[in-house]
């Protein structure tokens, strides 16, 4: 307890008054104060680090390659967005290596980069003034596969004690918290491929409830044979063999998606706290967030047929996120789509966008076509990309997607980046089994 | 068959590095017999992980309930080597 008291003493890190004075955000209703993004760390298949990734995205460089982590010759799908130049021992202390899955190693490195980018020194900031909110959809698959192999081939005594937490969805939040001494309100959210946006939404709420700084985002990886089979079981994975044309969201030739690994970790802050510590940059604001759930499809686990009049929930999530941001559809300069790459899902998303904005009324993009779908990492990476679009006034293109069916009625950004002033972006994500999430980011109001 | 292999501090250093990762707080060759494991950068999980390896290599059981009592390298060496002496 005394250590906590010492850490909170005046003059260390954030001025305690910033967090303690009950404002409109205190209490159960978190209010509508802006929440700044002040740091970003990216681990993506086409680039490690924010600027390497952004450069690759604008140049249209793909990170989709034949999987090299295991022998895929007997599997129907063999391409993935694979991170190839990450040596964990260069980024993390060796004591963390025996206890971490590749997904956690990437998350820890991305968190380090985000914190450094924000210019925050966690060792001089009060520990209870910093929270961690992450999402993970797959768990520590590769680590667990290895330990399970020991279990059935040697016996229980051969299984690592670290398996007890290395597999777990919350492990990235826990490890980031421990490594950086962040003991404020922390949590983990799981919502298949939509969960990363839920983490950002909950981080926004956590800041509005009074925590000055939250490290948030999502990272996933599952490229061992067991993890790969779990990807394949969705029936949505592209069996294509040409990396450039394997994942073509919104294209007439869409044939499924390519799974990817990695994600993004962001530092989000209360504006007063960011100013008090002299934050050097603000990428923008997390202005709105909402999540909805689709009605059960007919016949799923014996449920009654979907009731008439209950459409999929994606449009409702977008509308509610905009409402929370106090914005209207005409305020949105670009939509970063979920972009499933599966024809009926692409059509459903195009319909939601067209009905909300009007046909061809807003640019739509899916830069994830270059790297695959990163599960819990996908939404936060799209948000990071949207913030860079705001910063640099350019909308990246959607990989090799080109031939959009006319009846989709969307203005998909194709064949290279499009220069445009971007003040506000809507980011969408869907997860299998009915998850929909939406985040609105905009230029910071300083 | 008797087990006369003696475990040295260097052996424990090697096993812990393999199980819990190398620690910057325990440079090779340093006499840390009586340094608490906490200061050496290893928690009870690292010791549990090492226990299975010690059992394999030295044939000495390190039961889970004993692990909290192993506070420094000397405790582990006494347990392993004492046990070996008894069986010899």
Explain the layout of strands and helices:
The complex is a heterodimer of chains A (446) and B (88).
Chain A (H helix, E strand, L loop, with lengths): L1 H6 L8 H5 L15 E9 L2 E2 L1 H10 L4 E3 L12 E3 L6 H4 L10 H17 L11 E6 L5 H13 L9 H4 L4 H10 L6 E3 L5 H14 L4 E8 L4 H8 L29 E8 L1 H6 L7 E10 L20 H12 L8 E3 L6 H15 L5 E3 L12 H15 L1 E2 L15 E2 L5 E2 L4 E8 L3 E8 L4
Parallel strand pairs in A: 5-6, 5-7, 10-11, 10-15, 11-13
Antiparallel strand pairs in A: 1-2, 1-8, 1-9, 3-4, 7-8, 9-16, 12-14, 15-16
Chain B lengths: L8 H12 L16 H4 L3 H15 L14 H15 L1
Give a summary of the structure in a few sentences.
Chain A is an alpha/beta fold. Chain A is built from 14 helices and 16 strands. In chain A, helix 9 (195-208) crosses helix 14 (378-392).
Task: Describe what this molecule looks like in 3D.
The complex is a heterodimer of chains A (446) and B (88). With 446 residues, chain A is an alpha/beta fold. Chain A has helices spanning 2-7, 16-20, 50-59, 88-91, 102-118, 141-153, 163-166, 171-180, 195-208, 225-232, 271-276, 314-325, 343-357, 378-392; strands at residues 36-44, 47-48, 64-66, 79-81, 130-135, 187-189, 213-220, 262-269, 284-293, 334-336, 363-365, 394-395, 411-412, 418-419, 424-431, 435-442. In chain A, the strands form three sheets. In chain A, strands 1, 2, 5, 6, 7, 8, 9, 10, 11, 13, 15 and 16 form a twelve-stranded mixed β-sheet that branches. Chain B has one domain (9-87): Orthogonal Bundle (Non-ribosomal Peptide Synthetase Peptidyl Carrier Protein, Chain A). Chain B is 52% helix and 0% strand. Chain B has four helices and no strands. The mean pLDDT of chain B is 89. Chains A and B meet through loops of A and helix 1 and helix 3 of B.
């Amino acid at each position: 307890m005394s250590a906590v008291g010492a850490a909170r003493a005046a003059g260390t890190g954030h001025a305690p008054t910033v967090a303690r004075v009950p404002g409109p955000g205190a209490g159960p209703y978190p209010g509508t104060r802006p929440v700044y993004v002040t740091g970003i760390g990216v681990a993506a298949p086409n680039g490690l680090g924010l600027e390497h990734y952004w450069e690759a995205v604008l140049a249209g460089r793909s990170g989709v390659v034949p999987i090299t982590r295991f022998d895929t010759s007997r599997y129907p799908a063999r391409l993935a967005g694979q991170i190839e130049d990450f040596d964990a021992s260069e980024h993390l202390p060796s004591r963390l290596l025996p206890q971490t899955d590749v997904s956690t190693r990437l998350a820890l490195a991305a968190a380090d980069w985000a914190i450094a980018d924000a210019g925050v020194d966690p060792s001089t900031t009060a520990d209870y003034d910093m929270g961690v909110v992450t999402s993970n959809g797959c768990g520590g698959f590769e680590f667990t596969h290895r330990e399970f192999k020991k279990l059935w081939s040697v016996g229980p005594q051969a299984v690592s004690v670290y398996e007890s937490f290395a597999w777990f969805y919350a492990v990235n939040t826990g490890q980031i918290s421990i490594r950086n001494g962040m003991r404020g309100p922390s949590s983990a959210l799981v919502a298949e491929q939509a969960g990363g946006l839920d983490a950002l939404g909950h981080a926004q709420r956590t800041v509005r409830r009074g925590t000055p700084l939250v490290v948030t985002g999502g990272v996933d990886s599952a490229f061992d044979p067991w993890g790969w089979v779990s990807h394949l079981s969705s029936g949505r994975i592209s069996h294509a063999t040409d990396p450039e044309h394997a994942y073509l969201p919104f294209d007439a030739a869409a044939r499924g998606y390519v799974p990817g690994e990695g994600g993004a970790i962001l530092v989000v802050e209360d504006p007063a706290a960011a100013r008090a510590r002299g934050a050097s940059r603000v990428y923008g604001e997390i202005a709105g967030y909402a999540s909805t759930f689709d009605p059960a499809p007919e016949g799923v686990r014996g449920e009654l047929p979907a009731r008439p009049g209950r459409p999929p929930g994606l449009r409702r999530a977008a509308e509610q996120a905009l409402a929370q941001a106090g914005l209207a559809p005409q305020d949105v300069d670009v939509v970063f789509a979920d972009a499933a790459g599966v024809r009926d899902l692409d059509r459903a998303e195009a319909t939601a966008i067209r009905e909300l904005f009007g046909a061809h009324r807003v640019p739509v993009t899916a830069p994830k076509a270059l790297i695959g779908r990163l599960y819990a990492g996908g939404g936060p990476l799209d948000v990071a990309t949207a913030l860079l679009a705001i910063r640099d006034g350019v909308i990246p293109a959607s990989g090799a997607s080109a031939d959009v069916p006319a009846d989709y009625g969307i203005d998909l950004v194709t064949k290279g980046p499009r220069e445009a002033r971007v003040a506000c972006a809507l980011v969408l994500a869907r997860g299998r089994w009915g998850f929909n999430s939406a985040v609105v980011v905009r230029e910071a109001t300083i | 068959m008797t087990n006369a292999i003696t475990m040295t501090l260097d052996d424990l250093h090697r096993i812990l590095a393999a199980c819990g990762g190398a620690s910057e707080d325990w440079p090779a060759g340093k006499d840390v017999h009586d340094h608490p494991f906490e200061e050496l950068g290893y928690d009870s999980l690292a010791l549990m992980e090492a226990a299975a390896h010690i059992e394999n290599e030295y044939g000495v059981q390190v039961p889970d309930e004993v692990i909290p009592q192993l506070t420094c390298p000397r405790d582990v060496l006494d347990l392993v080597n004492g046990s070996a002496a008894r069986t010899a």
